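One record is set out below.
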Amino acid sequence: MTTVLIVDDQALQRMGFNMLLEAQSDMNVVGEATNGGEAVRMTAELRPDVVLMDVRMPGMDGIEATRRIVESGGRSRILVLTTFDLDEYAYDALRAGASGFLLKDAQPDELVAGVRAVAAGDAVISPGLTRKLIDAFSDRLPGHSPQQQRRLADLTQRECEVLTAMATGWTNQEIAERLHLAESTVKSHIGRILTKIDARDRVQAVIFAYDTGLVRPS
């Protein structure tokens, strides 16, 4: 059973999400929050698998709430909801540690699939859209830190190739075909990469690749 905390300042939105998720046999909505402050407190208390997080809310917004939840080191993963596919708020949320984002007008089955994917440890955003986001806001990328440089140096040549391919927007199947690897081998490489660079998921790994200069925005 996947537990979900819904965070949105609009009552009708919360009601709609609640009805949709509660209709799933494998999901349970454990609470609703109306702003970021409540989201941080309720996440600590309820420890949901997934926090469905709105971005623009009065008081503490979803970005700061995401940052605080991730920094707390808990098990909850964040799925951000945004209005526009290239909303800079969504980009900030990814940098804060969110596992991905969906548009608020996503189809019901897309939202349900997104919650399941995040709960399973996957990223919801496609690799191509991740790159599109980073390209759009590349001027905001900071220089890499010494710690990031050390983590990059820990990667083998093949792992650097796989990480570069991920950041370029290739799927696992495309990476396997172009690097002449089995898809299971690609998945193993990605798992080791995430561990070595201390990334929560594929989205964070791609951001790391851009931060360190391994891949440059087009």
Summary: The radius of gyration is 17 Å. The CA atoms of residues 73 and 122 lie 18 Å apart. The chain has eleven helices and five strands. The beta strands are 2-7, 27-33, 50-54, 77-82, 101-103.
